[in-house]
């Protein structure tokens, strides 16, 4: 195929447009590996890029999509051969570099991870950056000795992509998981099926330096006042894996939880994680996430033409779990 379909973001003086276009392979940027993309996915960051709600995209024109899974078509890298299944998440793809919302992608070989045995291309994108980030958060908690016997682990933004996978992973690994969400009325049944032991509403901001010790561990996708409230409620030597800022980038907290209870704040960077970390995380995801769980977290599978409309849904908080994009649909 000398031409392919792609969602292209273009900017003029007034606005940014997202248009499904037919492009030539020669239009692709430089890179060692040409990929026939099978699936991508929609993350919150993709929604920001496509709707232009935030200056996520650094150059125009650009194909968005921070994730992709596909088959190597051509390669000048010894690490990958035609026919290899590969996954790409992060590295500025879909922001600074052309991304996965297209039928073809040309990328640097260092950005890729081999598709693990037992994981399909579609299920890889049912996980995507959200699943990868959730696994990194779980690995961080494990590295800080938060075990199933340590006590309850709470996940904020529980009905979102990262939150959904984090709950499923933690529950499958034997943890007692509490889901915190602003959608208690509509998401409780879903979250309980993922493995949550109970579901609670959002955290209430507090002016107190410390609150009652409740949580041995936490995966926070919200930030802001929610993260500040979490730190005040952690048990002694508890750990919070921080991987989102849907509730804001400020942290109106105090030092007391850290110096009086030894609380650990664990930053999760999924964009620039090294290759070995990616391999470990994807292997653990493949071993832990069952087909039933993957089907449960996949709210819908859409085609490229549907991406702009569903991106609006993401911005309005109307998407639960994960959206997979079949780029050939």
CATH architecture of the largest domain: Alpha-Beta Complex
Spatial extent as radius of gyration: 20 Å
Structure summary, number of beta strands: 15
CATH class category of the largest domain: Alpha Beta
**Fraction of helical residues:** 25-40%
Shape summary:
globular
Query: Main sheet, how many strands, which sense, barrel?
Result: 7 strands, mixed
User: At the third CATH level, what is the topology name of the largest domain?
Assistant: Quinone Oxidoreductase, Chain A, domain 1
CATH homolog superfamily of the largest domain: Medium-chain alcohol dehydrogenases, catalytic domain
- β-strand percent reads 25-35%
- Which whole number gives the mean pLDDT? 96
Distance between the termini: 16 Å
Q: What count of domains describes the coordinates?
A: 2
Global structural class: alpha/beta
Order of helices and strands: EEEHEEEEHEHEHEEHEHEHHEHE
